[in-house]
Amino acid sequence: MDLDALLRHYFDTDDLDGLDEASIDAGRERVALAFGTEQDSGRRFALWIVLHALGAAPDPSLAFKNPDDRKAAEDYAWAASRIGRD
Predict the structure, then answer these.
(1) What is the mean pLDDT of the chain?
(2) How far is the C-alpha of 35 from the C-alpha of 53, rounded, in Å?
(3) So where are the chain's domains?
(4) Is 85 helix (H, G, I), strand (E, B) or coil?
(5) In contact, 43 and 53? CB cutoff 8 Å
(6) Model pTM?
(7) Which residues contact 52 (CB under 8 A, 6 or more apart)?
């Protein structure tokens, strides 16, 4: 999935820096709803990444039943936490 397309779809912009907190909250709610109802593994993972970037992603152990998806989310979360630390 294309990140800019996801942001335009759920936030009506591809630049979150220009949004006020209410608009970000509303978009985050739309992403969370889509994540909860999405059946496609790849699309679901992409939505989880957006939620993770916004600080609203559920723990991978709760979010993903498939062990491969769960491991990918755990690896992503670990790598994202390392950015800027070195």
Answers:
(1) 94
(2) 14
(3) 3-82
(4) coil
(5) no
(6) 0.90
(7) 73, 76, 77, 80
